[in-house]
Every structure is written in C-alpha cells, then in structure tokens.
Amino acid sequence: MLAGQYREGWGPYGIGKRTSIRHTRNLLNGVLNFSLTEVEYHTDPVFGFEIPKTCPDVPEDVLYPARSWRNEEEYWKKNKQLASRFISNMKKFEENNPKAVISAGPKV
Predict the structure, then answer these.
(1) Average predicted confidence (pLDDT) for the chain
(2) CA-CA distances (angstroms) from residue 32 to 6, 24, 27, 57?
(3) d(Cα 61, Cα 9) in Å, to the nearest integer?
(4) pLDDT tens profile 62-102
(5) pLDDT at position 16, please?
(6) Model's pTM, two decimal places?
C-alpha cells in the first residue's frame, strides 16, 4: 500500500469512506451519555447487530454504511461475502464454543 492510501472498512480501496473522527467521537459520546438509549435502531440483516437510526451531531448517512458506497448492491454483496468468511472461520472453533456463541454469528 502506498503512503496515504488506506482500505475503507472492509471493501476494496476507493469504495466507501471512513467515518470522521468527529462523528466517531459523537457516537461514543452518545453511548457514554446514554443519549442513544432513547433512539430507534435498525438491525443489520446479516450480522445482526443493532445500529442507531439517529445520533446527535452525526448525519444519518453515516449510520447506514451501505450509503457510503457508490453501489449499495455491491456493498451488500461484499457484506455477505465477509459473513461467509466469518462463518467458515468459526467452524474451526465450534467444538470449543457454546452454541449460543456460534448462533450469534452472521446469517447468510
């Protein structure tokens, strides 16, 4: 990788964008001051984690990572590929983990 280049999230270079430090701080502040306890959430359909629909001083588009890609369909394709890799990797650990841990993983 050349100096100054970076991968944005888990997509190929040049697709999407990183969350700004300011927005990251605002998200953390929302957690720490409990202001996110009163907002609605949406659930990631593949990984199952909950994402706030709103956060003070954070644009809503930041809370929907697919919107940072030029092509949302490509985002979801890569999302599912990442989930498949996660599932394949977790098979190595199924024997030593409770079923609840394994079932909490992504669904493709």
Answers:
(1) 85
(2) 29, 12, 9, 14
(3) 15
(4) 898 888 778 889 889 999 999 999 999 999 998 889 999 98
(5) 61
(6) 0.71
Contact (Cβ atoms closer than 8 angstroms) between residue 60 and residue 53: yes
Domain residue ranges of the chain, discontinuous segments joined by +: 21-103
Quote the longest CA-to-CA distance of the chain.
44
* CB contact at 8 A, 88 and 80: no
Residue 5, classed as helix, strand or coil, is: coil
Buried residues in 76-107 as b, exposed as e (16+ CB within 10 A): eebbeebbeeeeeeeeeeeeeeeeeeeeeebe
Are residues 68 and 17 in contact, defined by beta-carbon separation less than 8 angstroms?
Answer: yes
Structure tokens at 9: 């999230």
Give 11-53 as a 3 state SS string. Answer: CCCCCCCCCCHHHHHHHHHHHHCCHHHHCCEEECCCCCCEEEC
